[in-house]
């Protein structure tokens, strides 16, 4: 078999923390007088904390309103709310289909890496009880460019000791699919068809993720 590695996004793929990011940004937006809706939120998925804040400020026409240190405080405010929202995560918060997919990957001897832009990723993996399932975690603080740049997926493959052509990337973000495709990996998209239109293989939600179907679609 050619495929030897799976590289996963976390938020919105393994657990529904994408929803918590949305709520925390929406609340911060309210404090700044910027209305954030679900459509705009699609453009925030996969984007680092500070880059998300910059996008929100530009969207609200307030790009020049805050100093760098004020932006640090705003981002810390959002993260404070987010950290509270993830406090009670347990293994029951794995999205449907993910426990089985992880079992099937293990049984197939396929290695796993995490390619999340979130600095909260490791603590979430711990609370979900799946840290030991991952062979590698890409440290987002060491990246020079965030998604949609391919760097995080390229690093994931390197850390696993694999070629890009031997890996499959799984994402729920437009920026994430662009990053996987840019890394020349087969991309699996979870979400609505419009946001996931660039993915090589698409499912509407995680309960439809099947290792066998993904491998078939990838030509195995
Ligand atoms: O603020 P954190 O936890 O470091 O997360 C950074 C980014 O992580 C990504 O996984 C999320 O899709 C983004 O919404 C989020 O902004
Ligand atoms: Mg995501």
TrEMBL record:
<feature type="active site" description="Nucleophile">
    <location>
        <position position="9"/>
    </location>
</feature>
<feature type="binding site">
    <location>
        <position position="11"/>
    </location>
    <ligand>
        <name>Mg(2+)</name>
    </ligand>
</feature>
<dbReference type="GO" id="GO:0005975">
    <property type="term" value="P:carbohydrate metabolic process"/>
</dbReference>
<dbReference type="GO" id="GO:0005737">
    <property type="term" value="C:cytoplasm"/>
</dbReference>
<feature type="active site" description="Proton donor/acceptor">
    <location>
        <position position="11"/>
    </location>
</feature>
<protein>
    <recommendedName>
        <fullName>Beta-phosphoglucomutase</fullName>
        <ecNumber>5.4.2.6</ecNumber>
    </recommendedName>
</protein>
<dbReference type="InterPro" id="IPR023214">
    <property type="entry name" value="HAD_sf"/>
</dbReference>
<keyword id="KW-0597">Phosphoprotein</keyword>
<keyword id="KW-0963">Cytoplasm</keyword>
<feature type="binding site">
    <location>
        <position position="52"/>
    </location>
    <ligand>
        <name>substrate</name>
    </ligand>
</feature>
<keyword id="KW-0479">Metal-binding</keyword>
<keyword id="KW-0460">Magnesium</keyword>
<dbReference type="GO" id="GO:0000287">
    <property type="term" value="F:magnesium ion binding"/>
</dbReference>
<feature type="binding site">
    <location>
        <position position="9"/>
    </location>
    <ligand>
        <name>Mg(2+)</name>
    </ligand>
</feature>
<dbReference type="InterPro" id="IPR010972">
    <property type="entry name" value="Beta-PGM"/>
</dbReference>
<feature type="binding site">
    <location>
        <begin position="9"/>
        <end position="11"/>
    </location>
    <ligand>
        <name>substrate</name>
    </ligand>
</feature>
<feature type="binding site">
    <location>
        <position position="147"/>
    </location>
    <ligand>
        <name>substrate</name>
    </ligand>
</feature>
<comment type="similarity">
    <text>Belongs to the HAD-like hydrolase superfamily. CbbY/CbbZ/Gph/YieH family.</text>
</comment>
<keyword id="KW-0413">Isomerase</keyword>
<dbReference type="GO" id="GO:0008801">
    <property type="term" value="F:beta-phosphoglucomutase activity"/>
</dbReference>
<keyword id="KW-0119">Carbohydrate metabolism</keyword>
<feature type="binding site">
    <location>
        <position position="172"/>
    </location>
    <ligand>
        <name>Mg(2+)</name>
    </ligand>
</feature>
<dbReference type="InterPro" id="IPR051600">
    <property type="entry name" value="Beta-PGM-like"/>
</dbReference>
<feature type="site" description="Important for catalytic activity and assists the phosphoryl transfer reaction to Asp8 by balancing charge and orienting the reacting groups">
    <location>
        <position position="116"/>
    </location>
</feature>
<feature type="binding site">
    <location>
        <begin position="116"/>
        <end position="120"/>
    </location>
    <ligand>
        <name>substrate</name>
    </ligand>
</feature>
<dbReference type="InterPro" id="IPR036412">
    <property type="entry name" value="HAD-like_sf"/>
</dbReference>
<dbReference type="InterPro" id="IPR010976">
    <property type="entry name" value="B-phosphoglucomutase_hydrolase"/>
</dbReference>
<dbReference type="Pfam" id="PF00702">
    <property type="entry name" value="Hydrolase"/>
</dbReference>
<feature type="binding site">
    <location>
        <position position="25"/>
    </location>
    <ligand>
        <name>substrate</name>
    </ligand>
</feature>
<feature type="site" description="Important for catalytic activity and assists the phosphoryl transfer reaction to Asp8 by balancing charge and orienting the reacting groups">
    <location>
        <position position="147"/>
    </location>
</feature>
<feature type="binding site">
    <location>
        <position position="171"/>
    </location>
    <ligand>
        <name>Mg(2+)</name>
    </ligand>
</feature>
<dbReference type="InterPro" id="IPR006439">
    <property type="entry name" value="HAD-SF_hydro_IA"/>
</dbReference>
<dbReference type="InterPro" id="IPR023198">
    <property type="entry name" value="PGP-like_dom2"/>
</dbReference>
<feature type="binding site">
    <location>
        <position position="78"/>
    </location>
    <ligand>
        <name>substrate</name>
    </ligand>
</feature>
<feature type="binding site">
    <location>
        <begin position="44"/>
        <end position="49"/>
    </location>
    <ligand>
        <name>substrate</name>
    </ligand>
</feature>
């Amino acid at each position: 078999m050619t495929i030897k590695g799976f590289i996963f996004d976390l938020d919105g793929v393994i657990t529904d923390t994408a929803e918590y990011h949305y709520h925390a940004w929406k609340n911060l937006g309210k404090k700044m007088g910027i209305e954030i809706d679900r459509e705009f939120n699609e453009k925030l998925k996969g984007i680092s904390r500070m880059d998300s804040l910059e996008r929100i400020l530009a969207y609200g026409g307030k790009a020049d309103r805050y100093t760098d240190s004020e932006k640090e405080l705003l981002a810390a405010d959002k993260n404070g709310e987010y950290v509270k929202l993830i406090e009670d995560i347990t293994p029951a918060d794995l999205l449907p289909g993910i426990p089985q997919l992880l079992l099937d990957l293990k049984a197939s001897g396929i290695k796993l890496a995490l390619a999340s832009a979130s600095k909260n990723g490791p603590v979430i993996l711990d609370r979900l009880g799946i840290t030991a399932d991952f062979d590698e975690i890409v440290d987002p603080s060491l990246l020079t460019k965030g998604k949609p740049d391919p760097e995080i997926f390229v690093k994931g493959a390197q850390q696993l000791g694999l070629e890009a052509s031997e890996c499959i990337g799984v994402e729920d973000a437009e920026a994430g699919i662009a990053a996987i495709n840019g890394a020349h990996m087969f991309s699996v998209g979870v979400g609505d068809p419009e946001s996931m239109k660039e993915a090589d293989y698409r499912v509407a939600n995680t309960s439809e993720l099947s290792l066998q179907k993904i491998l078939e679609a990838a030509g195995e």
